[in-house]
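If your schedule permits, I should be very grateful for your opinion on a structural question. What I wish to show you is a protein chain and, alongside it, a tokenised description of its three-dimensional fold. Would you kindly read the sequence against the tokens and tell me how you understand this chain to fold? Here, with my thanks, is the record as I have it:

===
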Amino acid sequence: MNRFNGTRRTMLLCGSAFAALFAQVAHAQIEAPDTEEMPDAGTPKSEIVVTGSRIVRPDYQANSPIVSVGAEAIENSGQVTVERTLAQLPQFTGSFGQSNTRSTSTGLNGGQAYASLRGLGSKRTLLLLDGRRMQPSNPDGSVDLNIIPEALIENVEVITGGASTTYGSDATAGVVNFRLKRDFTGLTTNVQYGISDYGDGESFRINGTLGGNFADGRGNAVLSVDYTKRWKAMERDRDYYYFRRTTPGLATIPQGNTIFGANRPTIDAVNSVFSQYDVGTLSGSDGFYTGQIGFNTDQTLFSTSGVPVLNFRDPETDEAYIVDSGPNSQQINFGYGDGALQGDLERYTVFGKVDYELTDSIRSFVQFSYVNYESVAAGNPTLASNVYGLHIPSSNPFISDDFATILASRPNPDADFTFYKAFNILGPRIQRYSYDVYQITGGFSGDLGIGDVTWDVYGSVSRAKFENEQFGGASSSALTRLLYSPTGGTEYCDGGFNPFGNVTPSEACIDYIRRRTLNTNELKQRIVEGSFQGGLFDLPAGQVRFALGADYRYNSYNFEPDAQLNQPDGTSDVLGFSVLRAAGGSVNTKELFAELLVPVLEDLPFIQRFDLDLGYRYSDYSSVGGVHTYKADIDWQATDWLRFRGGYNRAIRAPSVGELYAPVSTGSVSIGNPTPTGSQGDPCDVRSSYRLGPDGDKVAALCLAQGVPEALINSYQLGTAQVFALTGGNPDLQEEKADTYSFGGVIRSPFYSPLLSGLSLSVDWYKIKVKDAVGPLSIAQGFQFCFNQGGNNPNYDPNNYYCSLIDRNPESGVPLNPRQPLLNLGQYTVSGIDIQLDWRLNLEDLGVGANSGRFDINTAVSYLDNFEIQDLPGATTYDYAGSIGKAIESNAGTAHPRWKSATSFTYSLGQASLGLRWRYIDSMKSSAQVVNPNSSTRGVEAYNIFDLNGRVMLPAEVEARVGITNLFNRKPPQVGDNQGNYDAQNYDVLGRYFFVGLKKSF
């Protein structure tokens, strides 16, 4: 494979030339630029606002645990988007991002990248830009990391723990604050290129940032322009995905297969046909055939009655063989491997800001950000399967004589039959996600003239518009006309449509079937905020400081579906997609907040300083009414080298406009495959542990009560791991409430020896308890709990709440759009310990020699003690710490390792450095074992991965950086029992990746 495609290599060279040209032009226009760098985060300043507080203070002390990530660490990740850097931190779990290539039919997630703290979901993680709210990118309130002006990031500060008192709703799990460079002067250009070891997944990025002072230094302006291009990476190019075809079974195939339901043919009729193929005989039940019939390319038939499969002919080789469970087994499943591990992305970002001192005591600013990007993903072709199976009349003219013989033996020979088919003739389903986001923010600040009290007021107007365009769909009404036509559809298109055996129809027929849809989502936000802060009066231990303010916030949501999904008769005409209704709504919020910093003790034994930080916020939501949040934090400086911090926060999260008003839509949800010992899959499936267990008779009775036909009860198999579940908004939702606790200490080395003087350590314990959590009740759990998993339905009552979520097709028993209601569920309780160690060694101080460089070690470790979930009030509580595989919510992570760490070893010499990064994720058991300790579903082994990076200053002040991520090309662990199933949000599925970058400043 040519790993460096000529066209893309040319783009890289052109981009580099553009960067050089941009630099030359700027150099000619800017005389003697001021290149003074901003101080590092953590450098003491005369005044600074600590993330998590509204009070300006003379030091950089935070009461809550803060993790800081610098711009250099983001560059060393080798990624062109910031989400991968955050996801690798122990405090985060994966939450969509570059691997997010598929979406629901409303197209709300495709290509977006989120930050999920503590595994509690991105909607409980508040993202800020310089301490101010950003435009939500998803109706659930989540902010897309793709809209961050990354070229201007100075550092990223992460507070893990509730901060609703300081910032309002959505800060339940914590806050991620992106601090931008200030007073930027000069010109910086940056270009980066990367490619995987498999020759795909390429990325290219170029940006330029121009800034300078004006009006005799009273003003500063900065403009940053960024272009990013990322290409897809495919499953089929990696050997660990390729073996997806080694499991025996039947998938939906282009040739098609038949579902008879309760109207089954006789076994004698089936064997009379198969005897012509000389492949053996089939068995039945009560004289009837209990399996399905599939079609070969030549329209001969094969059986799908369990294992072995008889007379299947490979469509690629036309070779006849038997599919069995031996070492040469093969799944009848064509099209896998066409999935994308990383979606295409093309992004344009523009950010500008002007600061200006109107007078000596009044300052103003205005900033503008605009982001436009497209992400394109290709998936499997449209499938007519499960609840979206086609119905074909027995009079269809393309039915072969062999198949007609079998149909005629049914008790009702003239009845229609259900047909499953993969529409490869339409090509892959292409999802194009287009995002257009802007935000304008402006404000004033100044000195009040009373002591050191200052004031600040700002307003913000923003909008996010998303379009989800889908290609490769199939029209249900067009197919119905073709299939029920006495001529096979020749009156509609040339040659008609033969659905059997993968006969390629004419282009006219393909165009007649094919459909394109376009759904549009629009979110708007308006913010006005004003505040005062400063000193009040002095106490013996120091000055009491305060912050007081008010704000108004308006958020709206509007969804317009494609007309084909919202037909006047209440149906959807696109195969595989449910009806979507136009929806929308708005929420406005009025808030008052106050914070007080009280110095309590000072200059006592073991108490150099003891401060108390108190806060309160009242919020009045148009949706849920008035709510209260409050906090009490302590800061205890015990000695010069020992400091304690911690506190309590009551946080809330009001339901977002999307959670209140989003349209009901269908999404493909995995419930797993049934096994004799596992808890996954449809419990009514005869292969499941439910049917094979000691309560198998009770399970069967419940299945019959739900709608599985009696004629099928002893042979029923779902035949897929997916169901199409319904989820939508709920205007009756109430706010979530969270109690968060933290306590920890920071130790800075008290030793003066060169070996230990550069050592610092922080240890923080946290506990977050979320009550009335808003989320969809997992339909996988709905199935399990309905059938008494965990003791949730001991009487196998069909009227049990969980059972009420499941309806079944009375002909086939297949689940019909089971519901995942959006509710105020039970609660989450998450607790653990964070550890961070920094150790700096100057080798010259150790006697190695003059100018021998410096060695730095940084490690961040997180231990998860509990991750308890109670789905409904009064229901059983399960602890998922140390497990993987449970989809808590649509945008929350599924991996909850006990231990997770990221450790960096860096050697620096002059203006060059070389670093090795070690990322570790602990082994985990399957989440199925949490609910059912007897489950045999496999977990994942421990995962160690190493990255290498280096940077050096070249002549002409050009900084070069290179790196390799996943240095040893470690493949991800398989999740669950399904081969080819990997967690792309938490593990590296791309493989070894190379990148190179250049930066030039003037």
Summary: The chain has a mean pLDDT of 84. The radius of gyration is 31 Å. The chain has 14 helices and 49 strands.
